[in-house]
Amino acid sequence: MTQVPARGHxxxxxxxxxxxxxAYVYSVDEVCRQIRALxxxxxxxxxxxxxxxxxxxxxxxIPVDCWDGVEVASRGELHMLAGLRSRHLYVNTPALTDTxxxxxxxxxxxxxxxxxxxxxxxxxxxGKRPVLPVMLRLSNRLVNQHDSSAPTLRNDQFGMDIDxxxxxxxxxxxxxxxxxxxxxxxxxxxxxxxxxxxxGTMLDLLPRLEQRVGxxxxxxxxxxxxEENWYAKGYxxxxxxxxxxxxxxxxxxxxxxxxxxxxxAGCFAVRVLFSKIVDGQxxxxxxxxxxxxxxxxxxxxxxxxxxxxxxxxxxRAQPNGGEKTVIVGSTCSRDDVIGETHEExxxxxxxxxENCGAYFRSYSMNNFLQLGGPSVYVM
Length: 379
Ligand SMILES: Cc1ncc(COP(=O)(O)O)c(C=O)c1O
Known about the structure:
The chain has 379 residues and is an alpha/beta fold. The protein has helices spanning 10-16, 28-42, 56-59, 75-80, 98-106, 116-125, 141-146, 162-174, 191-213, 237-244, 259-262; strands at residues 23-26, 46-49, 70-72, 89-92, 110-113, 134-138, 179-184, 219-221, 252-257, 266-278, 281-286, 310-311, 325-328, 337-341, 350-353, 375-378. α10 (237-244) links the parallel β8 and β9 (252-257). α6 packs parallel to α8. Residues 49, 52, 71, 92, 185, 188, 223-226, 256-260 line the site of pyridoxal-5'-phosphate (PLP).
């Protein structure tokens, strides 16, 4: 049975903090609880995908024995993690540059190679420095090509098709770069419907890839893709672990999560400045919105289903007589709607949007109206 991570006391701690809104509040304890629960559910090591919560104060406080590495996708992210003690550092981006390669070599990171050209780039810049055995990133298209029963995955630009993978293996050999394993990430929110198909595809491909490499591979990274609140989705993790057990014992299978680790470990807070009624419709005008938490505005969703925040310090709901209040942010965009509630809202109320710990802070409109960034609290 999936262990549901118990909520810590951090939500209560927020009540005590004098928040300067708009703000994000993160809990390191909650991050650790999520990682430990994921490791128990999957039975594999778990790597943290830094892009989901690019905050050194959060990530550097995760105890070393709790996690199994961190994956970064840019020079900026790598720089933020300078000095971090983590067992493994992975660099994973199709947009590899000279400066990123140099920095990654200096940081003794493992490259997750996205195309054969990456290998030439690494070889050109390595000088006398050793290159750790690399991972080859495979395209998620391989899942649909290999498994006709797999759900249709959204095509993306990441990784290599099988011919490119074979080419990369040959190039690596010619450049004297060792291959540690392969990486296949089906895409965000895919675990529930595609997880076992990804495993099946990798089981199918492994012997062929090993034959081309000419020796056994060591590691298979099955990416991220678990949803926020993953533990409440009713997934059969025992069945998934049984699928993973089909890999030869010598293979180390790992996962690399962002959303599943961080979503529940952070919230976004805004203060109601005014409430007003326009032609019968109630609005709560807040001091932050899409400028600091773009994803709440759901501008990219066809169907917008807005979140209902809780009101800080309110133990019991105060219904608003069935009337809906539209919660809006501080920009002049009519799309700056970040929530809806049927609760009574007053000027000065602080609204807490839960499950905003992953991607929300960085997936933002940058400085629209010079409104500035949110404060950040790490508890
Ligand atoms: C290479 C890679 N690994 C892991 C992740 C994390 O994905 P998720 O947040 O779905 O766990 C991402 C997200 O984009 C990614 O690009």
